[in-house]
Amino acid sequence: MTEAMDAEFDTVAEWTAEVAIDLGPDYYVPAGCRGSGSPAALDWLIDRMDLSPGQSLLDSGAGVGGPADHAAQRRSVLPLLVEPEAGACRAAQRLFDHPVVQASGSRLPFPDESVDAAWCLGVLCTTPDKGALLSELRRVVRPAGAIGLLVFVATDVLPADTPDGNQFPTAGLLTDLAGTTGLDIETWQGATGLDPPSREWQDREQTVTERLEECYGDERAWQVAEDQSRRMGTLVSEGHVSGELLVLRRP
Ligand SMILES: C[S@@+](CC[C@H](N)C(=O)[O-])C[C@H]1O[C@@H](n2cnc3c(N)ncnc32)[C@H](O)[C@@H]1O
């Protein structure tokens, strides 16, 4: 991880939990999803992956854990969180009542075919180990189980000012990766056209951001992380990268 990625995924993750706890439980999921997929993107995946109550759902690169808890609330699945950054693991443990394991998605500490389904949101674009990450998901998910992805893909030549450490695949590379990993792409949709979060969700997310700014605005880690998300926002708004939702399955 680079300094910028540590700031964003470790230090600020932990601060986010601190702020959310102070604000109260209604803020946990929006806080835990900051910088991730919108509720509509998560619901799209939950539906297309056909998740059902009681199924285990591995979240590889779970961050602060908001998306996994959203799935648990929507579909009564049993999330299992894997995340390499210690600060994010502690944040997820403080906010949500789901098991959290500190590990890399490219070396999952679980037996073959041990979970019903898995998802990996906003992670493939932050690691060079894309093939290993997908292979590990294929290995641990039961046959016919779904693997959901949110991936930010490069749509053209990227400007110099990209977020530090990000390595956006092209759509072609993503297709090739799925193929070489032995996974079928069952469905694929751009996230752009989906409904925006409710006003209530947006207000809560903004309150968390404002509180973080108030409490930690002078800290270098906050400034570095904010610069990362500003650069990411610019790439998306200028159309250089786009969020893509995919459901993969073992043939
Ligand atoms: C943009 S955040 C997304 C977090 C979470 N999935 C979400 O949607 O809110 C990317 C996450 O990927 C994690 N990550 C980076 N490299 C990883 C790897 N090799 N295996 C698993 N997670 C990784 C980071 O620590 C970070 O928490």
What portion of the residues fall into strands of 2 or more residues? 15-25%
Distance between the termini: 33 Å
Query: Share of helix among residues?
Result: 40-55%
Rg result: 17 Å
What ligand species are in this complex?
Answer: S-adenosylmethionine
Task: State the shape.
Answer: globular
Which spans of ≥5 residues are poorly predicted at pLDDT below 50?
none
Order of helices and strands: HHHEHEHEEHEHEHHE
Q: How many structural domains? A: 1
Strand line-up of the largest beta sheet: 3-2-1-4-5-7-6
Average pLDDT: 94
Structural class: alpha/beta
CATH superfamily: Vaccinia Virus protein VP39
Count of DSSP E strands? Answer: 7
The largest β sheet comes out as: 7 strands, mixed
What's the architecture in CATH terms? 3-Layer(aba) Sandwich
User: Could you name the CATH topology?
Assistant: Rossmann fold
Number of helices: 9
The CATH C-level name is: Alpha Beta
